[in-house]
Tetraspanin (Papilio xuthus), 219 residues
Amino acid sequence: MGCGEFLVKYILFFTNLFFALAGLALLGLGVAVQLQGTAVIDIADSSYQVAPIASMVVGGVVFLIAFFGCCGAIRESNCMLITYSLFMIILMILKITLASLIFVNLDSLVQGVPNVLNDAFNRDRVAFQEIERAFTCCGPSGPLSYMNIALPETCCASQPCTPLNAYSGCDKQVQGLLETFGLAIGVVCIVVVAIELVAVVFGLCLANHARNKNRRSHY
């Protein structure tokens, strides 16, 4: 094996190691959003549920394919490397789609949070207390959302619960969650895609080297 093939082999190996970690990062971000925002996701429409689920699915698949790529690079298997490269191209398309959906729709999703919370609050104030517990907030826009009704215990850190010691509104808290994790997931997707492009090129180069090596061994 020449110096060039040696470098390509181990660059591909360590690149896939990075992909495995990035896949776990996407998976972790999706799980974090799903757990932190469970109360909101349960009452929201499907547009708020897609991103964390898609992030978990893509992250898990990236991790498995990256592991496959590591094995292909070390064994210099032409079949494994070609299969790996094809899967990586498909994943690149999926991640570009996911990142595009997040960046295009993030502002509208964030701006729609107050309406979603107000609808949930007016529909069932007892169920809305789950959101208040999860985000340590009070009402859609603050304690004034309850008008002349006594504030629930979930609105305050200590009792008795009054507007003076109540938490701020839930709309800002939920909007902050969406902005933070939405941008994080989108940026991770873009960074991974950029490096995946290099990995695909290296994978095809190493596959070609492995094929030529096998041909020479038969002569």
Remarks:
- The mean pLDDT is 80.
- Residues 12 and 46 are 38 Å apart (CA to CA).
- The helical segments are 3-36, 38-43, 50-75, 78-111, 113-123, 125-135, 170-217.
- The two ends are 17 Å apart (CA to CA).
